[in-house]
From TrEMBL, chain A:
Protein name: Carbohydrate ABC transporter permease
Membrane topology per record: Multi-pass membrane protein
Alphabetized PROSITE patterns for the sequence: ABC_TM1
InterPro entries in UniProt: MetI-like, MetI-like_sf
GO cellular component terms listed in the entry, alphabetical order: plasma membrane
Family named by the database record: Belongs to the binding-protein-dependent transport system permease family.
Location of the region described as Disordered in the Swiss-Prot/TrEMBL record: 1-38
BP terms from Gene Ontology: transmembrane transport
Endoplasmic reticulum recorded as keyword: no
Species for this entry: Streptomyces qinzhouensis
Transport recorded as keyword: yes
Keywords linked to the UniProt accession: Cell membrane, Membrane, Transmembrane, Transmembrane helix, Transport
From TrEMBL, chain B:
Domain of life: Bacteria
One GO biological process term: transmembrane transport
InterPro entries the record matches: ABC_transporter_permease (IPR051393), MetI-like (IPR000515), MetI-like_sf (IPR035906)
Entry protein name: Sugar ABC transporter permease
Membrane topology: Multi-pass membrane protein
Length: 314, 309
């Protein structure tokens, strides 16, 4: 650490001003003198930091591997030998979870809800974003900020009135009600992201189509939407993960046991399984719910990362 | 371009705006209004009672507990998560050194680490909470069996059952599930820092600490700040609700002796408990104010000269 003090003077004090070239040769002297000490420090640091990286990787992977392993074991060995490999692959856990524990129903409900709301979110979000990005009209800014503001509201505050809004419209405990709510709560980020995206697209193509006699609507669906495909994919994946993993909204708005989605179905299962003790079945259910998103992540790794980080990086 | 323009604009905006107003904006306005009434949630009748709910809230011991825990979440979680993520991201992008060709590189296998670290982020918070609930189980959870396996039979904590430990156990889960997101986020930011800055610093013999604090962190500051706000909102909002709601038990959820209760969970308990709907929205308003204050404070504290490069 002592070397730090002496050497740090060489780095531009207040910020990353590139060091003028002529200074560099003069500095090589002290640099090489401290070289042996630095090397030793570097090695210790390397071992330490590599160690931290490996430990965190293990901490991430082990719980997931443990869940996969447990889903193939018998209840008894999960507890008596938690770290051993399964004696054989007990696939009956999976079929039991799929049929008896209603995982198949939860799965189907989730696919229906997420499918419906994903299409709705992308369609309505891109329509609103297109108009807000491309047209001047009174109130444009106001509507834009109305949408963007939704990103900072804590959802939990709206839950009680939302419950009664849905009840009055007889949308409570229905899948289409849940779809509409998912779309509404996905709009702020989607509009925010796609407005920025539509602004970057060139105007000339749309104008040419319009001059050729295409209506605004036709121009949007046949020219602009296909051009916006990369943006739609990024924001689509973001919404897919968010909606697939949604827990709070269905827990409150969708209490019919027949209509449960995966995340709430699993929690329900965990609570009731506490008495029956079918842990292997529960683990199989957990792994089933994990697989689609893990698969989507591995396949679309680049787009997932781009979609999830797009909002926060300037 | 004028022909039919306004009809088109209205046609495209009306459905998204209607859905958003009905399911998002309207409930928020209603919630703030209800906080000044004595509405039970069960019957349609209610009276305006002014600030009575707010006075009651200030005298409510459990509210103060929930507020304290939420504030701990909002301060400690970003600190831990972003600190860890900055360290990992720095190692993965700049940490590896002295390899031929490039002046600055990440450690070996950094691409692999980035993929693995991001895994928990795509999992449902409900699944993550369940997994850790099993791991924490004092009699047959993996943690205690691991302790037994290395001969620590005497050290068998109750984890989630221990009022002193439960809150920490819950926070660990949130850190575990979000660090990867920030590693990837900061990596993207670090990748856009010009390499000559590092080369210049290297020529001057700067070590890793200096490089990090003098070059990487200042240039990454905007991203760190927005990450900080994002993490704080997450720690105050829906994610912390899900984790506490699923993992900890207690009289009404929220851990032994309300040791893990957080504001969103307390809103939920009141909202769907017996006839406390108006009081629940009052606590919700408190949560909204805390969230907005948090964001303002972080933006003020984090304000510094913008560095252009």
């Amino acid at each position: 650490m002592k070397t730090t003090d002496t050497i740090s003077e060489g780095v531009a004090g207040d910020g990353p001003e590139p060091v003028p070239a002529p200074i560099a040769p003069e500095r090589t002297g002290p640099g090489s003198r401290t070289a042996p000490g630095k090397k030793g420090e570097g090695q210790v640091l390397n071992v330490f930091s590599h160690g931290m990286l490996v430990i965190w990787a293990i901490m991430v992977v082990v719980p997931l591997l443990w869940a996969v392993m447990s889903s193939f074991k018998t209840d008894k060995t999960i507890f008596t030998e938690p770290w051993s490999l399964p004696d054989k692959l007990h696939f009956e856990n999976w079929s039991r979870a799929w049929t008896e524990a209603h995982m198949s129903d939860y799965f189907l409900n989730t696919v229906l809800v997420v499918g419906g709301s994903l299409v709705g979110t992308l369609l309505l979000g891109s329509m609103a974003a297109y108009v807000l990005a491309r047209f001047e009209f009174p109130g444009n800014r106001f509507i834009y900020f109305l949408f963007i503001g939704g990103m900072s509201f804590p959802v939990i505050l709206a839950l009680v009135p939302l419950f009664y809004v849905l009840q009055n419209m007889t949308l409570l405990n229905t899948l289409h009600g849940l779809i509409l709510v998912y779309i509404a709560y996905s709009l702020p980020f989607t509009v925010f992201f796609l407005t920025a995206f539509f602004r970057t697209l060139p105007t000339s193509v749309a104008e040419a189509a319009f001059v050729d006699g295409a209506s605004h609507t036709r121009t949007f669906f046949q020219v602009m939407l296909p051009m916006a495909k990369p943006g739609l994919i990024s924001v689509g994946i973001f919404n897919f993960l968010g909606q697939w993993n949604q827990y709070l909204l269905p827990t409150v708005l969708n209490t019919d046991p027949e209509k449960k989605v995966l995340s709430q179905g699993l929690v329900q299962l965990a609570v009731s399984q506490g008495y029956k003790g079918d842990y292997s079945g529960l683990m199989a259910g957990l792994v089933m719910a994990m697989l689609p998103v893990l698969a989507a992540y591995i396949i679309f790794q680049r787009q997932v990362v781009a979609g999830l980080t797009a909002g926060a990086v300037k | 371009m004028q022909h039919g323009k306004y009809r088109f604009i209205v046609g495209f905006l009306v459905v998204p705006l209607a859905l958003y107003a009905l399911f998002v904006l309207w409930p928020f306005v209603q919630a703030i209004f209800y906080s000044f009434t004595n509405w039970s949630g069960l019957s349609p009748d209610f009276q305006m009672i002014g600030f009575d709910n707010y006075t009651r809230m200030f005298e409510d011991e459990i509210f103060w507990k929930a507020l304290r825990h939420s504030l701990i979440f909002a301060v400690v979680l970003p600190l831990l998560t972003i600190g860890l993520a900055l360290f990992f991201a720095f190692m993965l992008n700049v940490g590896g050194r002295a390899r031929k060709g490039a002046a600055v590189t990440g450690v070996r296998g950094s691409g692999f680490y980035k993929i693995v670290y991001f895994f928990p982020q795509v999992l449902s918070i409900a699944i993550v909470a369940l997994l850790f609930k099993f791991a924490y189980n004092p009699t047959d959870g993996v943690l205690n069996s691991l302790l037994r396996a290395i001969g620590l039979d005497s050290v068998q904590p109750d984890w989630l059952g221990d009022p002193d430990l439960a809150l920490i156990c819950v926070m660990v889960v949130l850190v575990w599930s979000t660090v990867g997101f920030f590693v990837v986020l900061f990596s993207a930011g670090m990748a856009s820092i010009p390499k000559d800055f590092y080369e210049a610093a290297l020529l001057d013999g700067a070590n890793r600490f200096t490089t990090f604090f003098r070059i990487t962190l200042p240039l990454l500051w905007d991203t760190v700040q927005s990450g900080w706000i994002y993490m704080g909102i997450l720690a105050l909002g829906a994610e912390s609700f899900a984790v506490v709601h699923i993992m900890t038990v207690g009289p009404r959820g929220g851990g032994p002796d309300f040791s893990t209760i957080v504001l969103p969970l307390y809103v939920y308990q009141n909202a769907f408990g017996p006839g406390q709907a108006a009081y629940a929205t009052t606590i919700g308003v408190a949560l909204l104010i805390v969230t907005l204050l948090f964001a303002t404070v972080v933006m003020r504290l984090g304000r510094r000269e913008r560095l252009e490069y």
